[in-house]
Model the fold of this input.
Amino acid sequence: MVNQMVLEMASEAISTAILIIAGIIVATAIASTMYSQASLMISAVRIASKISEDRVRTEIKIVHVAINSSENSSHLLIFIKNIGSRGITQEEIIKSDIYIGSDTCSTIYHYSLNPVKSRFSWSYTIIDINGDGVWSPGETIVLRAFNSTAINQPICVKIVLPNGVSHEALFNS
Done:
């Protein structure tokens, strides 16, 4: 009888120990999962904050549009100033969307190293004051937009940067 009681007590102690160990393992798994999810949430918030900061610091303004006509080509010259507080890289400029039209900005133009006047394409030159190759705050770029047909006035021009910041203007000569 004493042996049976000892066995029952030992059996209860072993069962209790197994339950405690299982509880610790489950608690550790839950804590680990919660920690990794919290880390993911913190990372997502940081990314969203960085994107938001980038957009707040970016601002551009179309300051002038002119029609440049010569015997060889006809294109628009579009002067755009960086009035934000951060530089805009050449990669960002190339990825930008340019919309041009008469009255409404209805036609998209695509970047090209060698734009052809018969296509809806554009190229650019940075008036690079500090020589760093970046469209820095206070600097202007000159876009040359080539169109296959004449654009009637007023001329609507819209630029949309890759981060979503945009500016639209309507010009009459």
